[in-house]
Structure to design on (202 residues):
């Protein structure tokens, strides 16, 4: 019995000690960290993505960035604005091997007709199912036109491939993507295609 009484008395001291520690702990409480948000502070609002600009020259390298644009658009409810730039044709100087070169105006018309056929295919692809997709064809320098369209449409994000195909009237994406990153007034996501799909340097 005496052992039990002593045990009970010992437990009583522990309980009183724990209660006393509460006062000491509250007195030693650290001041709140101003860097940490509190419940009373308003949460920082994340930027909204309403429009995504997707430049393309219709190559597999350029369109490798499309699934990224589609995934972000689906997550944010944004509209994808697909833009293709028909660059000015520079007349060939010297011997070209063609008896009767095609007029530049005809080549430009063919490039625009091709773009009008290819752009709707992007909107109909599996990645863009149930998404709002718009199509734009513009003429001029690729990087300058991409930046101009982005400014005029007030897009929130540009998603562009780091590479594309080269050739007559086609976007050379290596330099174009770099120029877009430097001059765009909105965030730019540059998607690098797999190495096996990148165009080989000559």
């Amino acid at each position: 019995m005496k052992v039990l009484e002593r045990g009970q008395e010992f437990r009583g001291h522990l309980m009183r000690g724990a209660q006393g520690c509460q006062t000491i702990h509250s007195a030693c409480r650290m001041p709140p960290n101003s860097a940490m948000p509190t419940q009373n502070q308003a949460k920082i609002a994340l930027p909204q993505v309403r429009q995504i600009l997707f430049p393309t020259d219709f190559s597999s390298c350029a369109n490798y960035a499309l699934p990224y644009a589609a995934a972000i658009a689906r997550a944010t409810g944004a509209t994808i604005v697909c833009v293709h730039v028909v660059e000015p044709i520079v007349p060939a100087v010297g011997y070209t091997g063609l008896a009767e070169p095609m007029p530049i105006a005809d080549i430009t018309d063919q490039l625009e007709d091709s773009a009008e056929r290819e752009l709707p295919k992007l909107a109909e692809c599996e990645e863009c199912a149930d998404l709002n997709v718009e199509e734009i064809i513009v003429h001029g320098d690729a990087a300058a036109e991409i930046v101009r369209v982005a400014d005029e449409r007030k897009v929130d994000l540009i998603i562009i491939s780091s590479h594309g195909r080269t050739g007559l009237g086609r976007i050379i994406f290596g330099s174009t993507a770099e120029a877009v990153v430097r001059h765009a007034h909105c965030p730019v996501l540059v998607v690098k295609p797999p190495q096996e799909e990148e165009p080989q340097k000559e």
Summary: The chain has six helices and five strands. The beta strands are 51-55, 79-86, 133-139, 157-161, 188-191. The longest helix spans residues 2-27.
